[in-house]
Structure formats: structure tokens, C-alpha cells
Amino acid sequence: MTDDWTHHGKVRAREIGGVLEIVVDGLTTQARYYKPLIYEFFRKSWRGSRPAWGEFGVEIWMDYTGDPPWMDLDNLAKALLDAIKGYAFHDDAQVARLLVERRQGERERITIRVTKLG
Q1: How many CB atoms within 10 Å of residue 69?
Q2: Is 66 left (phi over 0), alpha (psi -120 to 50) or beta?
Q3: Fewer CB within 10 Å, N- or C-terminus of the chain?
Q4: pTM beyond 0.85, yes or no
Q5: What CATH number is associated with residue 79?
Q6: Is the dihedral of CA 18, 114, 89, 118 positive or negative?
Q7: What are the pLDDT digits (tens) for 20-74?
């Protein structure tokens, strides 16, 4: 476990108390943009824990400034779950709880929090 952020480009991640937190700076309306970006981060830079079995809760927040972007949150969630599969958990079928929320923020970014349940 580490309290320090691991950085690579627009992506950073850390583990605190068994919770994996991933932040992607900036927004785009193309959900497919995030999958290779996050996958590349994990492949090149991540040295944290390995995927686990069991059930997980995943929270995803899309912070925006100005007018909310036109993006289907279900497409965003699918792209992000695909990107972290193999790093946070073995398969996205392990996600037993999923929260996806768009909210006004101070800066544009995506935050993902993965918690092992039970």
C-alpha cells in the first residue's frame, strides 16, 4: 500500500487502506478515449497491488466546469471498467455495486474509486 500518487501523463493513481483511486485530468465526450489512456498507465507505470477475486464497489465521478458535457454515463462507465479490468479486479462481472455521477467541479476530471466489498 502506498499513499503516494503514481503519475503517467494525464493519469494518476494510489492505494490507501485497500481502496484504489484513479484520477484522469481533463474531459472529452468520447468515452473510448479513456480505455487506452488508463490501460497504458497501468501497463507502463502501476506497481501497486494485483487484481483480486471477490466483489467490488466502483464509484465514478465526472467533474466538469461550465455546461455539462454531452456524454452517456453508461458508455463512460463501460470504458472505464474495461480499462481497469485486469488491474483492480479480474473481470468487470465482479462489480457488485456501481455509482456513476456527473457533477459540477473546480476542474475537469474523472475520478474512479474501487473498493473490495465484504
Answers
A1: 14
A2: left
A3: C
A4: yes
A5: 3.30.1330.70
A6: positive
A7: 999 999 988 888 899 899 989 999 999 888 898 999 999 999 999 988 777 889 9
